[in-house]
């Protein structure tokens, strides 16, 4: 699986989760809306009940007045008169309250307003009968009642109020139905929203689970590859080591076998030199006038010694080179013995061994505080000593050598640097100087070009690298990067 | 004093004819006139040494090179030192190898002297001449037969 596909999937599941969240918010909003709607509906119910109650009470006031009239007519007691007045006031107050309650509904308001004249008329009829009673005209008063105008008005009032109540009832029904419908719709919406949110969440979880599983699988694969890689590296390293061992053995055997013929060349050259000495003694003793004496004399005194001298010098050089190869291959075969080494002490020890040389050339060697390291002491000592000797050997004209040994640490490694102010090394030769038998600059110092080759081979063996920073004429800095602890694979191999 | 009159045979196992000649020359220069038998490979050396006439007729002095074409001189040394008769024969290892482990091994196997052939001829000649002087004075066990 590619990384972009996995990212897309992650984005997808995030979107799903976001969608679910939005739906949940919508559902919560709907529930809030439904609650406020419910409250409004409750208010309306209260309103309807109030209207009905006030309307009924208005009618009740008129009925009270009618009862008072009836009492007055029967008993003739004027004490009933104030009851009617109270009823009139009550009715007026109730009616104005009713009008206020139904003001929002034009039809109901009109119905309420039309109640006023009827009420006034009805009370006017009461007043009429009461006036007649006050004048002791009881018969006329009963006559008015008999006329039935009062009863008629009463019937109309009852009908009007009943209608108002009925309309209010109808309104309530309609509103309840609407409220129920919206509540139902909301419920449906809520359920749908919740189901959808649940589904989205489920999808998101599934997608995330799948992703997690993929990630786990990928991690397992990476781990597997890592193990495989380690095995491959170990295998290759073993191969390289075998090849290296073979080269070491090869170098050893070759240099060894080259020595044998060299012994002969040198031996018989020396024998020839002895013969040549006898010969020149003989030639010197020959009488001067002998034929061909000049040629023989030249041969004995010049040609022989010259040729033999060249053979001798060349074989001597060849011997040194072979010894160098031998030493190098022997160094490669030496068993490494890692131990804790205080670099500062090691460098100071090297300083002591070159003390005489330092004093002679007015040179200085500065050793900065350095950390400890676990590696092979002999090998490291040899390398640092070699670099210090080079620094003291290849000085710039007219400038006493100043050598500085320091070290910096980085994770797993220590970089030991040996810096000098000497003649420096041409950039072109930076790689070449590490090759066996190769040297750089003016060939005015003794040497075979072995030291740095040895340094590089040794440092490689210790699991490190050596690098060179230098400019012609401006000194050179050799930096040895060594593992803080010599890897066990290196020292174990040598123990085996 | 027996000195140069010592009848002990010197057996030189050396594959390089030049080396053999140089060794012989310098041994002779030191005044050693014992018979020198030159054998050029390991097989020839072993068959010569294990010939009854040689093996039973008392010790010989063996100059042994380690780098032989057919076998290592170390093996010859081991065979000599394992043999109940030959083991009393002094063995002088004279070779180009100066490997410390090789030297130790030879002494462990019973080599009497180990000499590295110096490439520098003066040193070489000197070493061989001194070896010759040494041979002229050294005592070899009497023949057991």
TrEMBL record, chain A:
InterPro entries: BphY/WalK/GraS-like (IPR050351), CHASE3 (IPR007891), HATPase_C_sf (IPR036890), HATPase_dom (IPR003594), His_kinase_dom (IPR005467), HisK_dim/P_dom (IPR003661), HisK_dim/P_sf (IPR036097), Sig_transdc_His_kin-like_C (IPR004358). The chain crosses the membrane at residues 15-35, 183-205. Pfam families: CHASE3, HATPase_c, HisKA. Residues 253-486 form the Histidine kinase domain. The keyword Phosphoprotein applies. Its EC number is 2.7.13.3. Keywords: Kinase, Membrane, Phosphoprotein, Transferase, Transmembrane, Transmembrane helix. CDD domains: HisKA, HK9-like_sensor. It is an enzyme of class 2 (transferase). It catalyses: ATP + protein L-histidine = ADP + protein N-phospho-L-histidine. It comes from Sphingomonas jejuensis. This is histidine kinase. GO terms for molecular function: kinase activity.
Automatic annotation (TrEMBL), chain B:
Residues 9-132 form the Response regulatory domain. InterPro entries: CheY-like_superfamily (IPR011006), Sig_transdc_resp-reg_receiver (IPR001789), TCS_response_regulator (IPR052893). The keyword Heme does not apply. PROSITE patterns: RESPONSE_REGULATORY (PS50110). The modification 4-aspartylphosphate is found at residue 65. The keyword Cell membrane does not apply. This is CheY-like chemotaxis protein. It comes from Sphingomonas jejuensis.
């Amino acid at each position: 699986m590619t990384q972009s596909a996995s990212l897309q999937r992650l984005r997808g599941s995030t979107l799903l989760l976001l969608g679910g969240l939005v739906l949940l918010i919508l559902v919560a909003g709907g529930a809030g809306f439904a609650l406020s709607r419910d409250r409004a509906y409750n208010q309306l119910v209260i309103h309807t009940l109030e209207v009905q109650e006030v309307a009924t009470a208005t009618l009740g006031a008129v009925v009270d007045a009618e009862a008072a009239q009836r009492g007055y007519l029967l008993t003739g007691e004027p004490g009933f008169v104030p009851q009617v007045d109270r009823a009139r006031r009550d009715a007026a107050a109730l009616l104005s309250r009713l009008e206020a309650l139904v003001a929002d509904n034009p039809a109901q308001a009109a119905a309420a307003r039309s109640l006023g004249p009827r009420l006034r008329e009805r009370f006017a009829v009461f007043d009429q009968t009461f006036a007649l009673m006050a004048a002791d005209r009881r018969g006329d008063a009963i006559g008015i009642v008999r006329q039935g105008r009062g009863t008629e008005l009463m019937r109309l009032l009852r009908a009007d109020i009943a209608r108002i109540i009925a309309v209010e009832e109808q309104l309530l029904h309609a509103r309840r139905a609407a409220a129920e419908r919206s509540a139902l719709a909301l419920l449906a919406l809520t359920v749908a929203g919740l189901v959808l949110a649940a589904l989205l969440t489920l999808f998101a979880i599934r997608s995330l689970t799948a992703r997690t599983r993929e990630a786990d699988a990928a991690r397992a694969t990476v781990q597997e590859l890592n193990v495989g890689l380690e095995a491959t590296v170990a295998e290759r390293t073993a191969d390289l080591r075998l090849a290296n061992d073979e080269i070491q053995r090869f170098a050893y055997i070759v240099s060894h076998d080259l020595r044998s013929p060299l012994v002969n060349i040198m031996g018989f050259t020396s024998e020839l030199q002895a013969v040549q000495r006898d010969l020149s003694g003989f030639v010197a003793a020959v009488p001067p006038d002998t034929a061909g004496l000049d040629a023989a004399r030249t041969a004995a005194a010049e040609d022989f010694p010259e040729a033999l001298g060249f053979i001798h010098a060349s074989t001597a050089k060849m011997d040194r080179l072979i010894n160098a190869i031998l030493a190098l291959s022997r160094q490669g075969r030496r068993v490494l013995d890692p131990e804790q080494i205080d670099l500062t002490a090691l460098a100071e020890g090297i300083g002591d061994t070159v003390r005489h040389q330092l004093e002679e050339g007015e040179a200085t060697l500065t050793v900065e505080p350095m950390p400890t390291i676990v590696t092979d002491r002999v090998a490291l000592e040899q390398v640092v000593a070699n670099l210090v000797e080079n620094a003291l050997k290849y000085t710039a004209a007219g400038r006493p050598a100043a050598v500085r040994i320091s070290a910096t640490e980085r994770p797993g490694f220590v970089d030991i640097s040996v810096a000098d102010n000497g003649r420096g090394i041409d950039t072109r030769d930076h790689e070449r100087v590490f090759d066996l038998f190769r040297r750089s600059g003016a060939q005015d110092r003794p040497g075979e070009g072995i030291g740095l080759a040895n340094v590089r081979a040794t440092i490689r063996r210790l699991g490190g690298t050596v690098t060179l920073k230098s400019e012609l004429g401006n000194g050179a800095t050799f930096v040895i990067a060594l593992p803080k602890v010599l890897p066990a694979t290196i020292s174990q191999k040598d123990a085996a | 004093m027996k000195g140069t009159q010592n009848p002990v045979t010197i057996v030189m196992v050396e594959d390089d004819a030049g080396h053999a000649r140089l060794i012989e020359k310098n041994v002779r220069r030191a005044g050693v006139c014992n018979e020198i038998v030159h054998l050029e490979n390991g097989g020839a050396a072993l068959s010569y040494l294990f010939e009854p006439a040689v093996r039973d007729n008392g010790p010989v002095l063996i100059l042994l090179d380690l780098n032989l074409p057919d076998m290592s001189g170390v093996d010859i040394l081991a065979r000599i030192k394992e043999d109940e008769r030959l083991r009393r024969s002094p063995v002088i290892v004279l070779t180009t190898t100066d490997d410390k482990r090789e030297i130790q091994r030879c002494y462990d196997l019973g080599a009497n002297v180990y000499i590295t052939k110096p490439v520098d001829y003066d040193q070489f000649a000197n070493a061989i001449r001194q070896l010759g002087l040494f041979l002229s004075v050294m005592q070899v066990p009497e023949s057991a037969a």
